[in-house]
Amino acid sequence: MEPLSLLRWIVLPPVALIVIALAVANRHVVSFSLDPFNAQAPALSLEIPLAAIVLISLFIGILIGGFAAWSQAKIKIARRKAPPPMGRAKSTPTNLPAATL
């Protein structure tokens, strides 16, 4: 079993349990408003459970992070295929002919 897979099995179940526990504990309906200027009568408002807001936000964050990692794959492949950078020049050259007077 590779280390990343093992780490996933160690971390994922406790995180999933915590997310499920928070979702069950926060089933209260809240007003989700997208109008910051008129709090009394917002133009766009939804009445949804708080857990739904948290889970949807988490899902959107995972999608954005996955897309960012996926879009960098081309850059990583190009760097891997590129020739290695030239090393720094030595401060004192070697194999020079001896000085003659």
From TrEMBL:
The keyword Membrane applies. Residues 81-101 are annotated as: Disordered. Keywords: Membrane, Transmembrane, Transmembrane helix. Residues 91-101 have a biased composition (Polar residues). It comes from the Bacteria. The chain crosses the membrane at residues 7-28, 48-70. This is DUF1049 domain-containing protein. It comes from Parvibaculum sedimenti.
